[in-house]
Amino acid sequence: MAKIKIKQIGSPIRRPEAQKKILIGLGLGKMHRVVELEDTAEVRGAIKKLPHMVEVVD
After folding, report:
1. Whole-angstrom distance, CA of residue 33 vs CA of residue 30
2. CA torsion sign, 40 to 42 to 56 to 5?
3. What distance lies between CA 43 and its chain's CA centroid?
4. For the chain, what is the domain count?
5. Cβ–Cβ contacts within 10 Å for residue 28, how many?
6. Rounded CA separation 58/56 (Å)
7. Cβ-based neighbours of 10, under 8 Å, separated by 6 or more
8. What would the mean pLDDT of 43-58 be, rounded to a whole number?
9. Residue 10 contacts residue 54 (beta carbons within 8 Å)
10. From the centroid of its chain, how far is CA 14?
């Protein structure tokens, strides 16, 4: 299965608790951290919920 790299670009400070939990679920939580995950519908959905906090890195 294909992989996708995700980088956190926004801070979770003063964000709703649900958004913080999505970040932790993606393996993020600190600024400028990059994780490589399977490219699944669940991961894509989580990215769409946080477009202001994460970006897909090529």
Report:
1. 6
2. negative
3. 8
4. 1
5. 23
6. 7
7. 31, 50, 52, 53, 54
8. 96
9. yes
10. 17
Per-residue tokens: 58: 């090529």
- Give 1's pLDDT tier (boundaries 50, 70, 90): confident
Token couple for 26: 């993606």
Domain of 7 in residue numbering reads as 1-54
Q: What is the DSSP letter of 22?
A: H
Q: What CATH number did the domain enclosing 22 receive?
A: 3.30.1390.20
Question: What average pLDDT does this structure show over 1-11?
Answer: 96
- Amino acid letter, residue 47: I
Identify the DSSP state of 10.
Answer: S
Q: Which two tokens stand for residue 37?
A: 């995950």
Write out the DSSP string of 23-46.
Answer: HHHHT--STT-EEEEE--HHHHHH
